[in-house]
Amino acid sequence: MKKTLKNNVSWVGKVDWELQKFHGDEYSTHKGSTYNSYLIEEEKIVLIDTVWAPFDEEFVDNLASEIDLNRIDYIVANHGEVDHSGALPFLMRRIPDKPIYCTANAVKSLKGQYHQDWNFHVVKTGDRLPIGNGKELIFVEMAMLHWPDSMATYLTEDNILFSNDAFGQHYATEKLFNDAVDQDELFREAIKYYANILTPFSAILIKKLDEVLSFHLSIDMIATSHGVIWRDNPYQIMEKYARWANDYQENQITVIYDTMWGGTRMLAEKIAEGIHEADPKVEIKLHNLAKREADDVITEVFKSKTVVIGSPTLSNNMLHSVAGFIHLMKGLKFKNKKATAFGCYGWSGEAVKRINEMLAGAGFEVVSEGFRNQWNPDDDAQAGATAFGREIAKF
Fold first, then answer.
1. Which one is catalytic: 226, 258, 345, 350?
2. What is the predicted pLDDT for the residue at 210?
């Protein structure tokens, strides 16, 4: 169903209430998501992006009920990833000759995925497309935010920035706008989205924000590709991104672990107690990797100044869940964060050393040799873990 954003601009996307996983199984979507597509009806009619392929027929049928598809003059593909372009093949079977405006890399992406030589028109930053009634589309390349093909599109006069994946959230809602939804939920999903998707590109993001602001565009609305549209003070999410991109951290320490028989869990809890004793003001989060979604824990790492990671020793190494999580953190290229390790062992006890080595390789400042305990923690070992926590709080 078409929903008006402003004047002759409408949302024609899909709300996916049932979505639980995204990017394969990499990203948990506890609040579902939306695939936002937009229709501009001026003298020229423009469709900006489509929806994910499972909804392609539904999307095209709904669009056709709103407008004769042959009246569409231009299609803008801000990004070739399938959650934005998935309905293009079904749509283009209906209107095969319509021009598609996108970056040169998006042509590669769309051809590579769908093996179709559609009527592509390559655009670069600053290129303009008149659409009538004194309005233009201005294209802004957004390479690596978060794919090489990404771009944003700005509609003059209405002052709408169609930002694609920037400023979005995986958040299913029928209310459409940022001021109409629960603010705690909104910003919880927004920071999770940034932490898990955009963190590796923070340096690029800072430059791109500066570039967009240098155009002196008046932005009344930011129309994202997922989640809500920012109409109430849209610059607030840009300000959040500017903070998040600047080696972000809060006064938080996160203790992360996996355990076999409970000994490493006991150490984790005692370490958390010691941190609290030394610094009652610091926020402490405790996460068992076997019981939490990895991307939710990543969000806590993003907010933390220090992370403490624990594993028992198995096969002369750490548990694979811990190794995989550190590998995930390495790919996200966190900056300005401290870390150390802990764990129980029965015989050889290599896990703590191996964790610290991996943490250093992932870009963390390792501040301690860590805390090891042989066998199940007795009273002395528990007291030692608490003391270790007090030391961690000082860093």
1. 226
2. 87
CB 219 within 8 A of CB 167: no
Is position 49 annotated as part of the catalytic site?
no
Q: Which residues pair with 27 in a beta bridge?
A: 22
Among 103-112, 215-224, 355-364, the minimum mean pLDDT is found in 215-224
Q: How far is CA 317 from CA 41, 190, 256, 269, 310, in A?
A: 61, 35, 17, 22, 12
Q: 59: part of which helix (H) or strand (E)?
A: helix 56-66
- Catalytic: which of 83, 189, 300, 350? 83
DSSP per-residue string spanning 5-54: EETTEEE--EEETT--EETTTTEE-TT-EEE--EEEESSSEEEE----GG
Q: Tell me if residue 149 is catalytic.
A: no
To the query of whether residue 79 is one of the catalytic residues in this protein, the response is yes
327 is catalytic: no
In 3-state terms, what secondary structure has residue 310?
strand
Angle at 119 between CA 64 and CA 49, to 5 degrees: 45
Q: What is the pLDDT of residues 40-71, one digit of tens each?
A: 999 999 999 999 999 999 999 999 999 999 99
Residue 235 a catalytic site member: no
For the chain, give the percent of residues with pLDDT over 70.
Answer: 100
The tokens describing 65, both together, are 């009920």
Q: What is the pLDDT of residue 291?
A: 96
- The answer to whether residue 83 is catalytic is yes
Stronger pLDDT, 350 or 214, i.e. the higher one: 350
Q: Which residues contact 223 (CB under 8 A, 6 or more apart)?
A: 5, 9, 11, 36, 38, 160, 161, 162, 163, 229
Selected catalytic residue, list 79, 84, 170, 287:
79
Please pick, among 16, 84, 146, 170, the residue that the annotation labels catalytic. Answer: 146
Output phi, psi for 198, to 5 deg. Answer: -105, -15
Q: What pTM was computed for the model?
A: 0.96
